[in-house]
Amino acid sequence: MTNEHAAASVLLPPPPSTLHPAPFGQTLFDLSRPGRRATTLPPLDVPPAPLPPQGLLRQSLRLPEVSELDLVRHFVTLSQKNFSVDTTFYPLGSCTMKYNPKRNEEAARLPGFAQLHPHQAPEAAQGALEVMWELQRELCEITGTEACSLAPAAGAQGELSGMLMVRSYHVQRGDVARRTVLVPDSAHGTNPATAAMCGYEVVSLKSDQEGNVDLADLRQRLGPHVAGLMLTLPSTLGLFDVHVQEICRLVHEAGGLVYGDGANLNALLGRARPGDLGFDVIHINLHKTCSTPHGGGGPGAGPVCAGSLLAPYLPEPMVEDLSPGPFPAREGETTEGRGPRYRLGRPERSIGKVGAFHGNFGVLLRAYAYLRTLGAEGLREVADHAVLNANYLLARLRHAYHLPYDRTCMHEVVLSGRLQREQGVRTLDVAKRLLDYGFHAPTIYFPLLVEEALMIEPTETESKETLDAFVEAMLAIACEAREEPTLVTGAPGTTPVGRLNEAEAARKPILRWHPPTGN
Q: Averaged over 152-175, what is the pLDDT?
């Protein structure tokens, strides 16, 4: 074992048995003992309801009988086996799994906000509407656009809203021959799916040797049949396309529109505005850019911002400011004759509603608190530190892992496991071995145009010490791939559950637990 390997090995966590006394495979049925109870129900204080028909009743129902202490320990132990951004470094590239400040959570739990009902009259929800109005303005300022709708409840829905706006624009003008949308091969994977859902034919654009959109390929594919281009900036390669303004100019000259996938906006905050670069419409993933909760299927928020051309097509509702007309009384004033200052309105040519109400309000609150806490200078620091951290990882890992695009990256760095593959170790093996070192794996095998891809995003919230520990683990794994490849190919070895058969798990999932016979 080399010195490099030995130094990194100290990062290995203790065996799971020392962390969690109860075996991972132990279920509540294993803990069950006759007569034990975790709770006692109070006496019935309402008339008993009749039972369902006899044919619907189960004659025997095996349930575990456990004490409250055993029950609490069981579920707390399970929770401690989960990776989360509050417990460990979570370097999922493109997903931006960064720390969620607790101050934002406190703001979202304020009774005046948390207890609002979506059907509440605007007159009784002026504070909430004011927050939404201010957030609309701030997101427009950040993106360099004219108007913003907070209605989309997720990034994918914001993306769909943006492309429906593009389609409505062309249809309203009678330009129905535009049936093609161009999508670079470095775009987010949802982009072609969104264009197809909007009824467009999707044409992929190649990247050049530097990772930018190939301008020659773009010029060849433009024409009166092109409705627009969907551009992810920075791209999924973690790179800023140096041709972005030329790309927008060429698409506009051909009569098309440019949609911006703003999922990676945290790399540009305070440094570049998509609207200034030529984008007509852009969505924002607040769970990435503004550190609102992420994962588990939600909650999410994907506001969509547009320039003057597409602003009339934004999804409803949007908050409108009626001043200098009626507005709530300020201190020392009376409310006589005054109505609400803010109301929910509908843009002139809106694509309509994309949700039941007016956005994921709790998530919007968290984003608003985040922006107001940081301010303009703080947002610039977010971008600066995100880019600095990613380039630090690039500099320290570039000689141990293949670097497909040798240039300064933005908020994430994309490496390749091609060197390790020569030793019989695949990128999946590297990801599994990282679990033994106490780290969640980065995104792997994406973007698709990089073979054996490792997509690492450190975010701006991680310290240098955390990044150094991650680097040492990655260097140790690279060393193991050369000297002891079976350590990597057999990983993980210290987690409660070993490597699963992922193909079988995907095709034949076991979705229901059955107690063992005889228990």
A: 96
Which pairing describes strands 201-205 and 180-184: parallel, antiparallel, or unpaired? parallel
Confidence at residue 21, expressed as pLDDT on a 0 to 100 scale: 40
Residue 205 pairs with which residues in a beta bridge? 184
The C-alpha angle with vertex 456 and arms to 455 and 459, in degrees rounded to 5, equals: 140
DSSP string, 300-337: ----EEE-TTTGGGPPBPEEEE-TTSS----TT---TT
Radius of gyration, alpha carbons of the chain: 27
Q: Is the pLDDT of residue 178 over 80?
A: yes
Closest CA to 266 of 405, 106, 406, 410: 410
Residue 330 confidence (pLDDT): 54
Q: Which two tokens stand for residue 310?
A: 């597409």
Instruction: Identify the band that residue 13 occupies on the pLDDT scale cut at 50, 70 and 90.
Output: very low
- Side-chain-facing half-sphere of 365: CA atoms under 13 Å: 21
Q: How many CB atoms lie within 10 A of CB 481?
A: 26
* pLDDT single digits (tens) 446-503: 999 999 999 999 999 999 999 999 999 999 999 999 999 999 999 999 888 888 888 8
**Residue 23 confidence (pLDDT):** 47
3-class DSSP assignment, residue 245: helix
Average pLDDT over residues 246-256: 98
Whether 362 contacts 242, CB under 8 Å: no
Domains of the chain, CATH where assigned: 25-40+62-80 (no CATH), 102-371 (3.40.640.10)
Say if residues 33 and 66 touch (Cβ distance below 8 Å): yes
Residue whose C-alpha is closest to residue 461's, from 295, 288, 303, 301: 288
* Among candidate residues 445, 449, 417, the one with its CA nearest the CA of residue 430: 417
Q: Which residues pair with 55 in a beta bridge?
A: none
Joined together, the tokens standing for residue 62 give 């095996």
Q: Which amino acid is at 35?
A: G
Q: Collapse the DSSP code of 33 into the 3-class scheme (helix H, G, I; strand E, B; otherwise coil) and give the result.
A: coil
Query: What number of other Cβ atoms are within 10 A of residue 344's Cβ?
Result: 16
Classify residue 255 as exposed, middle or buried by CB count within 10 Å of its CB (0-12, 13-18, 19+): middle
